[in-house]
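chain below, 247 aa
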Amino acid sequence: MSVRTIIIDDERLARNELKKLLQEHNDIEVIDEAANVQEGIAKIEQHNPDLIFLDIQMPGKTGFDLLEELDRAPKVIFTTAYDEFALKAFEVNALDYLLKPIEPKRLADAIQKVSQDENRETLSTNGTGVVQRTGLLSDEDQVFVKDGERCWFVKLNEIRLFESVGNYAKVFFGVNKPLILKSLNSLEERLDDKVFFRANRKHIINMRWIEKIEPYFNGGLLLELKGGEKIEVSRRQTVKFKEMMSL
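prediction:
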């Protein structure tokens, strides 16, 4: 089964060279290319690729800016001439980082990582359904989170809590709590309500991360998450929560 791939690079010669190198790899199908961030976003939305080869430094906006504008992040292999970006690339857990000019052996190693990653999870290779930009995000979907200079790829099932902070939402995963410019209401519309529950005005919790449930004031509940956070469920939402959990 081929991995549907888009190359995003502002240098036409670089795109052509990479396409030529990729012809040696039968499992990689280059379905399109783009020369800048806006074009790249449009192509990703059109094709829903499994993988992108992404240049970092492009005129106007960077590859990191592109990822930040996507609801879902496809698998990413960064390609760039600027090695000072290497650490940042690995902070976002990209599959690999290729320095230009790209060596065939390094490219082969990177593609091997794609195959290994494929074995760990099911890729969408038919261009329908699971990686559409519109519709609900599944807990296996990977999202890109950027806060200042720090960036991450995170699977939704690793996120235990969203907390409203003004116009932002704080995202809790691992030891990280970055802020993203999204409201809880907009997040709630995209999240699967069988997994993510709006506990109160300020919090959306991942129900799979609940460690303990206790009665609380005024008929509400107090939930303790596996990360240690204690979240109050409002009285109104407690009724809904009990119905969902069959308490």
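Helices lie at 12-22, 37-47, 63-69, 86-91, 104-120, 184-190, 235-245. Confidence is low (pLDDT under 50) at residues 120-134.
thats it, cya
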